[in-house]
Design a protein that fits this description.
Elements: E1 4-6, E2 13-17, E3 21-23, E4 32-35, E5 44-48, E6 57-60, H1 71-79, E7 84-87, E8 90-93, H2 96-101, H3 106-110, H4 118-124, H5 127-130, E9 137-140, E10 155-158, E11 161-164, E12 168-169, E13 175-176, H6 183-186, H7 205-224, H8 232-255, H9 259-281, H10 289-304, H11 308-314
Antiparallel strand pairs: 1-6, 2-5, 3-6, 4-5, 7-8, 8-9, 10-11, 12-13
Helix pairs in contact: 8-9, 9-10
């Protein structure tokens, strides 16, 4: 169903295309990388990064569904229990299974149902992650006017039914809905169009767009300045010295039977180490989930006596 793009020389860009790329024939698609850049929106750039002489053609399959959804259509689907989020004019349908697995927790997604989450998704996710978002797209929206997420008025869709509650949601994960029950909603068996329609505001969409643009420019400047990259020597070097000093002082006073003083410095060392574990839980040290988690297990589990796996599980919104 797609058109063929002739093979070009390695290490060159052959343009910007829509849709997915599939290899032609039996030759493996070696040396081809797909990536999404914020500046390109939903388009996909194709870059040849290594020689692949066995590949003769690359076929462009049909793009992600271009079905345009109206605000009314989106609202009706949300009222049926679907979790729909807008990202770069794409309408994403978030499956229930992903709500359970999302590192940031279920509520981080539920609070953006019916809303444009572009700024938040780009700010808190890597390019590798945002490149996978297309698989959740079911269509597009134009000039999106946000709806009010059902969860904000206490509505939760579980086991194919709506329930209105201001108590714990998934209590085993300590996710809590702090929503005061309002008489407007308690008499209804499910959320209605009026309950997911935001109140009028004097903040125009033009002003919101300017705020969003300014935010993205700031985000780009921070990224280009390398402020998200961990400086191991100048950043964590002094921290490690502090940990070792507190541990040494605890041992020093313990050897002299000054047990209360030793316990004080030991407690201070554990206290400071937990800040380090907190950063590891955010993948804020090496930015590699496996490496950060292994270091966190060593520090938290074996030195501090705290299961970092348990902590991340019960506080997903703060440890993604």
């Amino acid at each position: 169903m797609g058109r063929a793009v002739p093979w070009v020389q390695p290490l060159s860009t052959i343009g910007v295309v829509k849709g997915r790329l599939e290899p032609s024939g039996t030759s493996p698609l070696m040396g081809v990388t797909l990536f999404v850049r914020p500046s390109l929106g939903k388009h996909i750039g194709l870059v040849i990064i290594a020689p692949a002489p066995s590949v003769q053609h690359v076929h462009l399959s049909m793009p992600v569904s271009e079905t345009t959804f109206s605000r009314q259509a989106v609202a009706e689907r949300i009222l049926k229990g679907e979790n729909l989020i807008v990202y770069r004019d794409q309408l994403l349908k978030i499956p229930t299974t992903w709500l359970e697995k999302h590192p940031g927790g279920s509520l981080a997604l539920l609070h953006f149902v019916g809303r444009n989450a572009t700024d938040e998704i780009d700010a808190f996710h890597s390019e590798e992650t945002t490149a996978l978002i297309n698989k959740y797209a079911i269509g597009v929206v134009k000039n999106w006017e946000p709806l009010l997420p059902p969860v904000e008025s206490g509505w939760v869709y579980q086991n194919n039914t709506w329930s209105s509650e201001s108590v714990q949601y998934r209590p085993e994960r300590t996710e809590i809905l702090l929503v005061e029950k309002h008489p407007k909603y308690t008499s209804e068996p499910a959320p209605t169009m009026s309950s997911i329609t935001p109140a009028p505001t004097t903040l125009s969409f033009e002003v919101q767009a300017k705020h969003s643009e300014a935010y993205m420019r700031l985000q780009q400047r921070i990224t280009q300045a390398g402020l998200y990259q961990c400086r191991y020597l100048t950043g964590y070097g002094p921290e490690v010295v502090r940990y070792l000093l507190l541990g040494a002082l605890s041992y020093f006073f313990y050897q002299r039977s000054w047990f209360m003083t030793s316990a004080l410095f030991l407690g201070l060392m554990w206290h400071q180490l937990m800040f380090f574990v907190h950063d590891l839980g955010h993948r804020g040290v090496t930015h590699d989930w496996t490496i950060d988690r292994l270091i966190a297990i060593l520090v938290a589990d074996f030195i501090g006596g705290l299961s970092v796996g348990w902590w991340v599980d019960v506080s997903p919104s703060s440890a993604s």
